[in-house]
Recover the amino acids of this structure.
């Protein structure tokens, strides 16, 4: 069984994927695949430098993700140019990893944690999509505590994303994370039992 696990920033999707790992799922983090995609020697590296110039190359010869982020952050056109380069390559990386794990036969449940699953159009890689949601108030408190951001920055980042309602319309399973970790663990364990039986 393949599960795509997603949710907004601060929703608790990494916490949920950790619980799924404890229950026996093999978890792949799409962010790690994404970081590899940017590395020197990978096909995306040349395309990124061609699109954004040599100023995005750091002193170590790798893409300076902070500099690249500065360029694309407030420019939707530049951000789309970047995602058009990297998202298809991350998708291929995920497909290869998933195929390798399936062939290896080491687990019955494979979970891919991917923040941009819907935005990147990766839904058809999975049998089920699980979405972790939390109330905006809880998300804002978590992010301010964890990332030491001011409330305006945090609120802007949260509101720039897809809404919980939009995610819910495209989900097979909703994972509510409105309490503490113990409550989240109980929710995930029940879903695990019901969905993987």
């Amino acid at each position: 069984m393949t599960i795509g696990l997603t949710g907004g920033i601060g929703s608790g999707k990494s916490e949920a994927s950790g619980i799924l790992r404890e229950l026996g799922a093999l978890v792949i983090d799409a962010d790690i695949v994404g970081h590899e995609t940017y590395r020197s020697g990978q096909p995306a590296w040349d395309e990124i430098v061609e699109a954004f110039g040599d100023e995005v190359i750091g002193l170590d010869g790798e893409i300076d993700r902070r500099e690249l982020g500065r360029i694309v952050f407030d420019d939707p056109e530049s951000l789309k140019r970047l995602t058009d380069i990297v998202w298809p390559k991350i998708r291929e990386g995920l497909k290869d990893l998933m195929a390798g794990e399936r062939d290896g036969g080491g687990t019955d449940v494979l979970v891919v944690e991917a923040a941009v699953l819907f935005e990147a159009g990766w839904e058809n890689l999975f049998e089920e999509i699980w979405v972790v949601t939390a109330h905006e108030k809880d998300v804002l408190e978590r992010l301010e505590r964890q990332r030491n951001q001011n409330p305006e920055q945090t609120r802007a980042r949260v509101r720039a994303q897809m809404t919980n309602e939009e995610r819910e319309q495209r989900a097979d399973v909703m994972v509510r994370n409105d309490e503490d970790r113990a409550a989240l663990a109980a929710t995930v364990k029940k879903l695990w039992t019901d969905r993987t039986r």
